[in-house]
Amino acid sequence: MRGRRRAPRPQIPWRSPWTPVVCVTGLAAAATLFAVTHLSKDVRLVVDGETVAVRSFAASVQDLLVDAGISVGFGDYLSLSVRDSLADGGTIEVRHARPIRLTIDGRTTRRMVTSSNVADALAELEIDQAGGRVSAPPTGTVPLSGMSITMFTERRVYVIAGRHRRWTVTTAGTVRDVLRQERIPAPRGYKITPAPESFPRQGTVIRVEPPGPVLPPHTVAIRPDVAGLNWAGLAQCESGGNPRALNPGGPYYGMYQFNLASWQAVGGAGTPVMWPAEEQTYRAQMLYQRVSGRWQGQWPHCGARLFGRS
Fold this sequence. Notes:
Shape: elongated
Helix content: 10-25%
Order of helices and strands: HEEHEEEEHEEEEHEEHHEEHH
């Protein structure tokens, strides 16, 4: 009687011809997983305000920028050095430079900024915007191609028109605009100085005068003999020639050390230090005429300087 045939032995897995292939594939997958896990880096890349999440094998910031096709040139802002190593979880910011044609109070310069809106661009240029008038809104975009910005700062100017003698704070771009702001008419034929289209800088005295020698109403003519006195010498003695001088002992104000009663008696508004030198001189000459040349009561210590060399 023949014996039973033995069942075939099960094939040993590692003796299979596919075993090497499977092992190599598994090792490659493991190596890839290791590389992705340990060698790749997740980085936030912020370019001109736009944020992109990037996974990169780059070793340095420069390599990452090259891989991403981002150029950094002169004037551009880069938050890290191109030589810095790339760190996992880091943030890299790039802001490209934008040309600005900046005109402030009539003077134009060309500058470069990396800010993308007008307010930040002016702050970057360390320009105080308080009270000024800017041609573009603060939230306006500064394009990469650049833009022009015009700004007028606040200035104190003086207006003398007939009986109107006042100072005002303005951001106007021309003398004519100041007159419109103050609602001062300038009829045809009247003389306006400086020229109506000129720029009124800080301390500018604007005059509106009728044609011919006729004085505006309520304006006192200064006699030639009074105008010819040494007013500069008096002012130098009284205040060092400083229109903003203040002696709290009186108090006394300005180049000629007026007290308020004397200043107001000759039509002065506010206080003398609010007005430019020529207005203070005009009021001092009016005062001299008003007291009929008796300067001793007004300038007892320095009045004799009026008769020194002009």
